[in-house]
Design goal:
Strand order of the largest sheet: 1-2
Order of helices and strands: EEHHHHHHHHH
Shape: elongated
Strand content: 5-15%
CATH topology: Arc Repressor Mutant, subunit A
Largest sheet: 2 strands, antiparallel
CATH class: Mainly Alpha
CATH superfamily: Homeodomain-like
Number of helices: 9
Amino acid sequence: MDSIIQSTRNTGRVVKRQMIKKKSLSDLAVEFILKCKDEELGELTVSEIARTFKVSESFLSRKFTGDKVFTLGKFIFRERMFRSALLLHGNRKLTIKSLADMMGFSDYDYFIRAFKKHYGVSPSRYRYCKNSKTHAQYPAAPKKNELAKIATEGIGI
């Protein structure tokens, strides 16, 4: 049950109070990551998130892994891959090199390998196939809120 409604009598009328479930630190970290702009996501690190919430990096990592079954670093990486796929699909003028830089990959070749490992095709092939009629044979980018759903339900990535 998401909330508990308590009824109390106060001068002849019923007053309902809703107890609000307090968000966990890991849920707040997920919200923080998902609200980051594409340009900010590339520079986002676990230590920066820990500083934002005024906790130690190890404490944040332990809490996140305990709640979500996967690491915070892995979640950030998956969000970078997700946004990369969206940008490849939505912005034909954006070069793959500039996309790699934007997403925080200083090594262009590493970005290509990571993207290919994640989606099964290179970024350029992904862009080409997503914009042609033959795209059905290649994996799609996750849906908009899929990562948030995974993170809040605690399903392993």
